[in-house]
Amino acid sequence: MSNTDFVLAIEDLTVSFDGFKAIDNLTLYVDRGELRVIIGPNGAGKTTLLDLICGKTKASGGSIKFKNQEMTKLAEHKIVRAGVGRKFQTPSIYENLSVFKNLEVSFPSGRSVLGALGFRCTDEVKERVQSVASEIGLADALDMEAGLLSHGQKQWLEIGMLLMQEPELLMLDEPIAGMSVRERELTADLLQRICKGRSVIVIEHDMDFVKRIAHKVTVMHQGKILAEGSMEKVQADPKVIDVYLGH
Amino acid sequence: MSFDEIYNIALMQGFAGLSLFSVLLLMGLGLAIIFGQMGVINMAHGEFMTIGAYTIFLFSSLTETYAPGLMQAYFPVAIVFAFLIAFGFGWLTEWALIRHLYKRPLDTLLATWGLSLGMQQVFRSTFGPKEVSPTLPDWLMGSWAPSEGLDIPINGLFVLALTALVTGGVLLALYKSRWGLRVRATVANRPMANATGINTKRTDRLTFAIGCGIAGVAGAAFTTIGSTGPTSGSLYIVDAFLVVTFGGAASLLGTVASAFGIAQTQSISEFFLTGSMAKVLTLLLIVTILMIRPQGLFASKIRR
Amino acid sequence: MADKKDTIPATLTDEQRRKVLLGMAAAPALMVPGVSFGNAQFPTAKVNTTKLAVTDTEVIVGQLHSATGTMAISETGSIQAEQLAIDQINAMGGILGRKIKVIKEDGASDWPTFAEKSKKLLVNDRVACVFGCWTSASRKAVLPVFEKENGLLYYPTFYEGLEQSKNVIYTGQEATQQIIWGLDWAAKEKSAKTYFLVGSDYIWPRTSMKIARKHIETVGKLGKVVGEEYYPLGHTNFNSLINKIKVAKPDVIFVTVVGGSNVAFYKQLKAAGITGAKQFLLTLSVTEDEMLGVGGENFAGFYSSMKYFQTLDNPNNKAFVEAFKKAYGPKSVIGDVTQAGYLGPWLWKAAVEKAGSFDVDKVVAASPGIELKTAPEGYVKVHENHHLWSKARIAQGQPDGTFKVVAESADLIEPNPFPKGYQ
Amino acid sequence: MDAFKNWVARSGMGSILILALLIMVVFPLTMDIFRLNLVGKYLTYAFVAVGLVMLWGYGGILSLGQGVFFGLGGYMMAMFLKLEASDPEATKIQSTPGIPDFMDWNQLTELPIWWQPFHSFSFTVLAVVAVPMILAFIVSFAMFKRRVGGVYFAIITQAVALILTVLIIGQQGYTGGVNGITDLKTLMGWDIRDDSSKYVLYFVNAGLLIGVILLCRWIQMSKLGTLLLAMRDKEDRVRFSGYDVSMFKVFAFVLAAGISAIGGAMFTLQVGFMSPSFVGIVPSIEMVIFAAVGGRMSLVGAVYGALLVNFGKTYFSESAPDLWLFLMAALFIGVVLAFPNGLAGLYESHVKPWLSRRKSSPPAPSMEAPASSAHTPKTAPESSLPKGVQGQSA
Predict the structure, then answer these.
(1) Interface partners of B (3+ CB pairs, < 8 Å)?
(2) Which residue is closest to B137 within chain C, CA to CA?
(3) B98, C185, C191, D287: most buried, per Cβ within 10 A?
């Protein structure tokens, strides 16, 4: 199964912290253009899984292949450059910089030290910033200091920063946490739009939201995959019900 | 040279390494506790040691003037006071200075450095610029000679015992007392510790004061080996630093191992090479190992 | 040499000479206030042709030591002694009828600060001469300034030699004066054959030890060097060294350890059972000042080689010690360098009076051959090479922290900053 | 015209110009050569402080070992000058003429191989900048690749400073020991001790400093400057935007090292010697306080900080030596507790509002126009600086 069409192929992935297996022999495949939602109770290892994919945590064993390229040994920035984008659980933006600068910095050129010195904010960059900003609904707030944005806007900005990189795989950790109902709807629409032409992995707790966006749902429990399939299918799975409702 | 002589020298040399180890450990211990708990490097650590040393000097002078009969007995009492006085100043320092800077650990470096300058000037104004040396009780002087040709320095034995006592006390306190429990909880997860009703601010202050108190004891012990001047602290801090840096800063075990490693390297190489070369060799070794393992010998897993 | 009668410069009148002696005796009550014969006899235009800070009534000199920083411990004595000499000179009427005014600058134990301040003294203040510096490093830092601006420095510390400048008068001993006679004495008195050399790691101990080794092994043929060790400045752990000494079992431990290391060294020697009763030890670096820190009980029985000790038994010294204690308190002590500092102003006074001018070139030209019979250490004379002829002495440390002089060279020893055969 | 004004305001060119005027015109006109030489010495420390603004203010990396690089630069310049001063004629009194005097005292009989290249001035100039940068690269690469940072990095830089000091003092046959390398006289036959050459050196020094500030300002305004600020704020975000964060930190450290080394070399030229007392822990920390007093985010502030603290030191050590340490202590504590943004911060929060109230009639030709007023929606947003420090970044 090593050479596949999957965008992401995770096989036999294991990581342990001081003997505790946070991810236990996990195998998972994500298709091109797919929007996958990962759900599961707290401590199931969802965030750890994202950490492993983007290189923040190093695996104890197993393999992660992105477009058939092994990721487990790569440095974080190389994984990003290969086309993996990651949004953190709490909005992680540069509070002291303007929205424009936040997006500009994320533009995927001038990424080396010398490149950054020689980087010019060309019309191409400005156009991209404009278009992403309108995508995430912040076109009017470009000059604002990012720290002054509302919580929801910050989440969008971070998504926008990822879009600037044009990743082929986008991973979002609880993108609607702390959002109002209206903002959730807008975010759902946004996700529907951006998953065109790329794969997206979302971690989420809100079942209504999951129902609305998911192509396929993976349920994790204690570092393992408990169930996988359409929302209806996993909701009906007795193992899942057992985990969620308790013993 | 007879076998007996070689045997004696080897024994004395072994003790020399052990005694250097105890000195280094005692110097680094307070610094390591504070850094491990709060992520703060106390650049005035050397001055807190000097407080301890001057306390001994003060006690020795007072005893000599007012109660010469008690000269044999003042030393242990003075050590307790060295701890208490340094502890008190540490408490005060935390309250006045450190607690405002917990979010900015780099700034504590600067602030405590400033504090050390001020303290040096206070020492100079109070005790004069010359180095002083307390009159020690007779039982601390000279050597213990169990056999012909074998001299074990009594002050070395004393410092060794004191270090064992202090280190043991700290370990015991850390793993058996309520303070220790609070400290470990705070290090592991500060917000959580707070939430479970641990007064982390109070714990910090106590820890800082205890670290300073231990520095005071170290300074007191040091009077049996060297002299004390207003700027002695800047000499002490250097060694204390190296021990803590090399040990990986956050773990007590690392501090012990690093003090032992540095002391043995230095003491053995001093015997076979010249003194200056031994120092250079030891330092180069430390730097090379730090290049390979910048996080030190025993890095803590929790903090990065 | 010692039987030469007239040691006060010939240019002095009898009256002046009497005042010099009185001034040395520090008996202000007896002192005649400065008589203003000087200015008529020595008009400012004549005695000062190089725009120095000299007026009809006043001459300004500089004093450049570390009042702060790590060296303040050592330099305080020199500051006090120089001030004492200047006060005494002023009390007897000053120099060429002019009172000496001192501008004190703090080198703060920092060599560039020394250079900076020396420049200020010479360029801005135009001082007639400077008494100052203690460490070789500070002297090396100011030397180019003094040579460039043609200043005059009186340097009080015993040092490594290998230097001779037109613009410096060295009132302390250079290395050979302190070492060779002492070693010879040790060889003769103690029949010493094996020597262990220990020093702090910088230029003075290293140069001294180089001379010592040459003398022991080739020039003086005294015996053998069985160990030579240097430790970084501020080093406080000598246990390994002491074990090495125990292995080598030398007849003499020859020591040039300085600063805070000194205290640690002697405390640990004692703790290891090496005491004056069992072991002969000769040092070049323990004066009364260091003794305060080391403690008499740790140094008792060991020997120090200097040109001056506070307990020296002669009338000059008794008067000096009395005046010094009166000025700076009964607990103050006087070490070798302090006494050498005290000589500076007197030597300068004699040279200025011999030259009849404050001009540096003339004072420098007049300096060689200047004699001072009133020095606390006894008779001294300025050599052509700007160092002093002086005696060498050995004293034994006493448990109460004083020194007992046990030997003294018969003649003055010639200074030789570039000793042939010792390079 | 408006575009130009915007650029001036945005780049902080105004305050750089004022500084240039002050040190290139006002000081030379009002001070005698003695004072000016002192200022020249202080300005060499300002190099280090400027480097620290880039490293600490922008990069968020505190180094307590900048003296290492200052010292290395200075030592290499001193090696060149010393070789020139030790020609066989001038050193004929030695047992081995033609080598530096301290080598002769330490029984060296020939020049060590690694001293040989310092006969060449062009090699020396290259080495002054390159060697400290290479050392900085080696030290920082290992650290930053392993994500060692913060307090721990600061104390390791201190350990490096300590080790270098011990090495220099211990290997006196090769380095001159505690005394350092002294008695430097000429630079390629040109007497550096003359008043006229002191003037020339002062202007070279001041010119270089302004040049370095302009370079740093240019870096700050490039994407790299933005990235440094971004890293200080959210390091992980930068990393997961595809940047090799460690290399940017290495760059900042190497840059600061190179700048410090230039200062060191100029120090040797102006003061006439170099000694280990500029390499150790104490000078390194003092240099941090220059940057902190001036404002850790402000390049020109760093220069003012260096000047002010050193003037203070000279003044107080003359008039009240006992007070000086207390004052220094107060400065350290005050600057971190009360004025974390230093002089530049005070200027921002107090002087500038007052100035703008005075000149409220708009298009005053003020070069200190606040960034926000120079802002037009069409250009890229200016507010690229952290809160409270906008516009003071030059």
Answers:
(1) C, D
(2) C297
(3) D287
Same domain? For C166 and C40 the reply is yes
Could you report the per-residue pLDDT of C66-88, keeping only the tens digit for each? 887 777 777 889 999 999 999 99
A135-166 tens-digit pLDDT: 888 888 888 899 899 888 898 999 999 999 88
Q: Which of D178, D271, D324 sits opposite C137 (nearest CB)?
A: D178
- C68 shares contact with chain D (CB less than 8 Å): yes
Burial of C210 per CB tally in 10 Å (0-12, 13-18, 19+): buried
Residue D221 forms part of a structural domain = yes
Domain that holds residue C31: 14-173+312-389
Written in H, E and C, the secondary structure of chain A is: CCCCCCCEEEEEEEEEECCEEEEEEEEEEECCCCEEEEECCCCCCHHHHHHHHHCCCCCCEEEEEECCEECCCCCHHHHHHHCEEEECCCCCCCCCCEHHHHHHHCCCCCCCHHHHHHCCCCHHHHHHHHHHHHHCCCHHHCCCEHHHCCHHHHHHHHHHHHHHCCCCEEEEECCCCCCCHHHHHHHHHHHHHHCCCCEEEEECCCHHHHHHHCCEEEEEECCEEEEEECHHHHHHCHHHHHHHHCC
Whole-model pTM: value is 0.86
CA C246/CA C241 separation, integer angstroms: 9
Query: Percentage of chain D surpassing pLDDT 90?
Result: 43
Chain C residues whose C-beta is within 8 A of a chain B C-beta are: 68-70, 72-73, 76, 201, 228-232, 234-237, 239-244, 246-247, 260, 263-264, 267-268, 270-273, 289, 292-295, 297
* pLDDT given for residue C67 in this prediction: 80
Task: Return the residue of A nearest to D376 by Cα.
Answer: A143
Q: Spell out which residues of chain B touch residue D62, defining contact as CB-CB under 8 Å.
A: 106, 109
From the list C231, C272, C293, the residue facing B143 with the nearest CB is: C272
Q: Does D223 contact A119 at a Cβ distance shorter than 8 Å?
A: yes
Report D:7-66 residues touching B (Cβ under 8 A): 56, 62, 64
Domain count, chain A: 1
Number of domain units in chain D: 1
pLDDT band at B287 (very low <50, low <70, confident <90, very high): confident
* Tokens, residue B96: 């006045």
Closest partner residue to D325 (CB to CB) among B110, B118, B287 is B118
CB A133 within 8 A of CB A160: yes
Distance from CA of C215 to the nearest CA of D (A): 16
Q: Is residue D385 part of a domain?
A: no
B236-240, C25-29, C144-148, C229-233: least confident range: C25-29
Range with the poorest average pLDDT among A83-87, B118-122, C150-154, D95-99: D95-99
Chain D residues whose CB is inside 8 A of the C164 CB are none
Question: Does C245 map to a domain?
Answer: yes
In a domain, A104, yes or no: yes
- CB contacts, 8 Å: B270 with chain C: 240-241
H-helix or E-strand spanning residue C406: strand C403-408
- What chain C residue is nearest to D96 in terms of C-alpha separation? C423
Delimit the domains of chain B by residue range: 18-139+151-232
Tell me whether residue A108 is in a domain. yes
Neighbors of chain C with 3 or more C-beta pairs under 8 Å: B, D
Boundaries of domain holding D311:
41-358
Domain tally, chain C: 2
Contacts of A146 by beta carbon, 8 Å cutoff, 6+ apart: A93, A94, A95, A96, A97, A98, A99, A102, A154, A157
What number is the ipTM of this complex? 0.84
